[in-house]
# Entry
Amino acid sequence: MSLAQLTLHEASDKLRKRELTSVELTEAVYQRIADTDDKVHAYLTLAREAALEQANRADEKLKQARDPAPLLGIPIALKDNFLTKGLRTTCASKILGDFIPPYDATTVDKVRSAGAVIIGKTNLDEFAMGSSVENSAFFATCNPWNLERIPGGSSGGSAAAVAADECIAALGTDTGGSIRQPAACCGIVGLKPTYGRVSRYGIIAFASSMDQVGPMTKDVRDAALLLEAIAGQDPADSTSINSSVPRYSAALNGDIKGLRLGIPKEYFVSGMQIEVGEAVRSAIRELEKHGAVIEEISLPHTEYAVAVYYIVATAEASSNLARYDGMRFGRRANGKDLIETYMISRDEGFGAEVKRRIMLGTYALSAGYYDAYYLKAQRVRTLIRKDFDAAFGRCDVIVTPTAPTTAFRLGEKTQDPLQMYLSDIYTISINLAGLPAISLPCGFDGEGMPIGLQIIGKHFDEATILRVADTYERATEWHKTKPRIQDR
Ligand code: GLN
# Structure
């Protein structure tokens, strides 16, 4: 077995016991990247030299530290919308094609201080807008389970890197499903924390009322450990909440007796791939065997979620992306005057999907349409949130599929944005409501593609969804199956 296959907690144990050094582990990960990334294309930028220096320093610390942090010496990958000081950060956009940030995002700073080794920056949909990584301005990423399929998006590079053992764990961001849906597509664990749980300072903003940072890992324990390392209030992000960070890994006690699982009747509808429904139902039965109790619940405004999201997210994006004007950031075109410089820089710098969203969002916010679209969407958003409040009166967690289908074929939906938007149907409401949710593997379809189970929790109750997920994971083997990366 290659060392790159280790989980974070396995690798951390071996590092502590001196059965392994961080330099060996980091070299094994780069070897794996050399062997597979010409097929998977998970990374936009690698940082080998700096990483080996960090690994060396971690090895020194490991010799001295009595109780080293779990992340000390662990190679991790970062989605390329995390600002990394001195390391190119593109957001998969030409407009930031050669942007070198002057500072680290708070979460990057936190994992660095915990001793993690930063392997490189992973591919995504441009500005995190998409569900397949096909909107990257550079190249598509392939699903390690089948190179002709999408890895999910927008954190598809991180998901593919974890699934292909091209890192030990990764960080992603989730605005409408971008951690959970690629996690489901690639057969890994992905956790979107509660809005406010993790700092977004230094994350390239997409839709600020929904963006969250979270772990993408090989198992549930790793997600708990990584969340512990990145969570907590940050004075530099006023939306981060002052609430103590539990030791999530200590919550994984396998006890879910009497826990009430809400099953929303609106989520098991036509349009869902049959095998996805079957796998999720059998996962629910497994949880019942461990003493959980089933409650049918209703989230009646679910049918509006995709429409509401695509108004709110595009409106916020149109405002957030106004700063890319060719003056202060990245690429600048040569116009005859200032206005023309703005126009050409933006026209050349942004891809089609980003432009589509800026136009949609600007329209939804414009005078005369604001009330009809943006304000209406915000009102329906409140109703969606209230649906969850009511449901959580009757249950402790909500269990659903993560995505309606397994990973589709590259190119299958690129001509039809609406079809693409529908892949987020089960994940988007959670962002609108600001709730935490995790996706973990719960089976494979007839073509061998992974299926994801989503567990949604109450605000700031990541501990319970991690506990339920871990209980399920202990009873199953799905997370242990590895893709065989074949030539296309
Ligand atoms: N797929 C969704 C979108 O395109 C979600 C993206 C995300 O969570 N960043 O907006």
Notes: Residues 1-234+246-481 form a domain with the Amidase signature (AS) enzymes fold (CATH 3.90.1300.10). Residues 128-131, 154, 174-178, 206, 313, 424 surround glutamine (CB under 6 Å).
